[in-house]
Write a structure and sequence with these properties.
- This is PA2169 family four-helix-bundle protein.
- InterPro entries: CHP02284, DUF2383, Ferritin-like, Ferritin-like_SF.
- This protein has helices spanning 4-34, 38-64, 75-91, 95-117, 123-151.
- With 152 residues, it is mainly alpha-helical.
- The chain has one domain (4-151): Ferritin, core subunit, four-helix bundle (Ferritin), CATH 1.20.1260.10.
- It starts with a helix and ends with a helix.
Length: 152
């Protein structure tokens, strides 16, 4: 039997990851709509699908442990996306701005993953989180490369 405190702590940590992944999924879908560059659009769609996969993997892991979690995102993510819509209505949707906002979201995701990996979750879930975190860090590298391309 899993200690109730441990399970609640574990659920909270993974719920936070699910929420940031949902924000990432929605954010990348929005970014794909906003960018002009076709290559960036394709990559943003791929990253959105990757975040969706992260959600399903973690939900399945938690379901195996007897916990049902939802992926609804955060209020902060919702308002951030809406703020970008308002901002872009006045300033135009520049690819560099979209890339910068995506990078900001990914850096926040790394922080959420770090907290979850330092919480009381089983090792196999920590291993999954570590793998997903590496892919998010790779996305940041790719976003940096996009920014360099735009600067040239």
């Amino acid at each position: 039997m899993i200690n109730q405190y441990v399970m609640n702590t574990e659920k909270k940590a993974i719920q936070d990851v699910l929420d940031i992944c949902h924000d990432g999924y929605k954010g990348y879908e929005r970014a794909a709509e906003d960018v002009e560059n076709e290559e960036f659009r394709t990559i943003f769609h791929r990253l959105a699908q990757q975040r969706k996969l992260f959600i399903e993997e973690l939900k399945n892991d938690m379901r195996d442990r007897g916990a049902e979690l939802k992926d609804s995102g955060t209020v902060k993510g919702y308002f951030h996306r809406n703020w970008l819509d308002i901002k872009s209505a006045f300033s135009g949707k520049e690819d560099a701005t979209v890339i910068n906002e995506a990078r900001t979201g990914e850096k926040e995701a790394l922080d959420v993953y770090d907290k979850a990996m330092n919480s009381e979750v089983p090792q196999y879930i920590k291993d999954r989180l570590q793998k997903q975190r590496r892919l998010i860090a790779g996305a940041i590298v790719q976003l940096n490369e996009f920014e360099r391309e735009l600067a040239e």
